[in-house]
Write a structure and sequence with these properties.
The protein has eight helices and 28 strands. The strands form nine sheets. An eight-stranded parallel beta barrel has the order 3-4-7-12-13-14-15-20.
């Protein structure tokens, strides 16, 4: 396989109450042992955060082999290049040009051509809520304010009348959320105006002409809901989702053309996987208002709003650090095992479109917590893709809960897939567990550990190791 050397793993399992030494296994794909079926479909987004177009292009074939279907790229329009850090990409200057730190329009076109060749979808981050941070421009004449009103500017596509007056957002006042300036510094566009929407439609059409397959709308909370149906009319049939950083499902507006990051589910996972808390919080999360409806949810454990891969650079809500699953705020330490277990939950459940965050390529390797070829991720991706229903909805595998304890949860996906997550420091013993699984031999995706299901659906004995997730697929009678 391109981009990867063969990986040799010695696997020890806790099986039938004893330690079992499994022979060395040569893995062609990291995280997937031989004998696991190849999926017919793929449906997982990977965010290559702040990666250059050429670097993304070089890994497209590998991403497809690992099971990804979509690549989320950072905003490509001409932006505030005075700011070399990642947030400069989120300060648009000219929507008619693709150029800047990430690459040229020609390089962007080549990336899209490569993705199309490998049946991969490109999702572009689009920033329509605002333009530059007025405290970070090198040319003070770019945008000039008097009494908090824009009186002159040098944007190619806008005039002073296209900007809201500068004011401070009050989260309890929806009007200020949509009219005022993020951080009181990002020049807020009048997204309700016909001209600004025309510019937005022209930009989306330009991206479609370059081969783009979908869009992620930045700061969607700060834009009026009807904006999205209007501008997406320029890109019919393209997938789109938005960013609303809220913990309650009641704080999300309903727009037919837009899905959303599932921040409520992240909140629930953070609580459930915390030390001493209860994994049962995650059972039937949507019905308990702990998650967005599955067809509208982009489910994730980490993204650049939670962890941008830089020390002391976390997302903020109301001036407080926004931490995700696995973070200990007081010591600012990340427990990677909890992150892996949370990803197993996302990949194991039926609801939602899974989304994987990858650190900036510019970071030193020892600072890159999130890699697209992490074996735990790749195993979960394979399991998820093997559980996908046919396009007509047939062969659907709904969640069927079988194990429900504080530290261990387990569920079937239909009658031929099985997931168990054990967050405890001790093994979880299965004894004569009654299921509706089909009789036969099952294999764990990442380790190859065997599991036997009896004719009546019983699992007689199996010990789930501590701090471990397992995902089994049926491989034979």
């Amino acid at each position: 396989m391109k981009g990867f050397s063969k990986c040799i793993h010695v696997i020890r399992a806790c099986f039938l109450g004893c330690a079992l030494l499994v022979p060395d296994i040569v893995l062609a794909i990291p995280g997937v042992v031989p004998g696991i079926p190849e999926p017919e479909r793929r449906n997982v987004i990977v965010q290559l955060f702040n990666w250059r177009f050429d670097d993304i292009k070089s890994v497209i074939p590998t991403l497809k082999e690992l099971g990804y279907s979509h690549v989320h790229v950072s905003p490509p329009q001409q932006s505030n290049d005075h700011v070399w850090q990642w947030w400069g990409r989120y300060q648009p200057i000219d929507f008619s040009h693709i150029q800047g730190w990430l690459g040229t329009e020609q390089e962007f076109q080549a990336l899209n051509d490569e993705a199309e060749h490998h049946d991969m979808q490109i999702i572009v981050d689009v920033v329509f809520n605002h333009t530059v941070d007025v405290s970070e421009v090198d040319d003070p004449s770019l945008i000039v304010l008097q009494n908090n009103v824009v009186v002159s500017e040098h944007f190619p596509q806008f005039s002073p009348d296209d900007f809201h007056p500068r004011c401070t957002i009050n989260d309890h006042d929806p009007g200020t959320v949509r009219r005022c300036w993020l951080s009181n510094n990002l020049a807020d566009l009048k997204t309700e105006s016909a001209h600004v929407r025309t510019v937005a439609r022209q930009y989306l059409q330009k991206l479609v002409n370059l081969g783009v397959d979908g869009f992620r709308f930045d700061a969607a909370k700060h834009i009026e809901p009807e904006f999205f149906s209007d501008v997406l009319s320029a890109a019919p049939g393209k997938y789109a989702f938005g960013e609303i950083i809220e913990q309650s499902v009641n704080d999300y507006f309903k727009v037919d053309v837009l899905d959303f990051y599932d921040f409520p589910l992240v909140t629930a996972m953070r609580e459930a996987f915390a030390f001493g808390r209860d994994l049962r919080l995650l059972i039937n999360a949507q019905q308990n208002n702990r998650a967005l409806p599955g067809p509208k949810a982009v489910t994730f454990v980490r993204n650049h709003d939670i962890d941008r891969g830089q020390n002391d650079d976390r997302g903020l809500i109301d001036g407080r650090a926004l931490y995700g699953v696995g973070w200990d705020e007081s010591h600012r330490r990340l427990d990677r095992t909890d992150v892996n277990l949370a990803y197993a939950f996302l990949f194991g459940r039926e609801d939602g479109l899974p989304y994987v965050f990858v650190d900036m390529k510019t970071l030193p390797l020892d600072q890159q917590d999130d890699r697209f070829d992490d074996p735990h991720l790749v195993a979960g991706i394979r399991f998820h893709n093997l559980c996908l229903a046919n396009p007509d909805g047939s062969n659907r595998r709904p969640d069927i809960w079988q194990i429900q304890t504080q530290n261990t949860i387990g569920w079937q996906r239909g009658t031929d897939r099985f997931v168990i997550i054990n967050k405890a420091a001790e093994a979880y013993a299965i004894n004569n567990l009654k299921t509706s699984l089909q009789k036969g031999s099952y294999k764990e995706v990442r380790t190859g550990w065997p599991l036997q299901v009896e004719a009546d659906g019983t699992i007689k004995e199996w010990n789930v190791p501590p701090r471990t997730s397992v995902m089994f697929v049926r491989i034979g009678d």
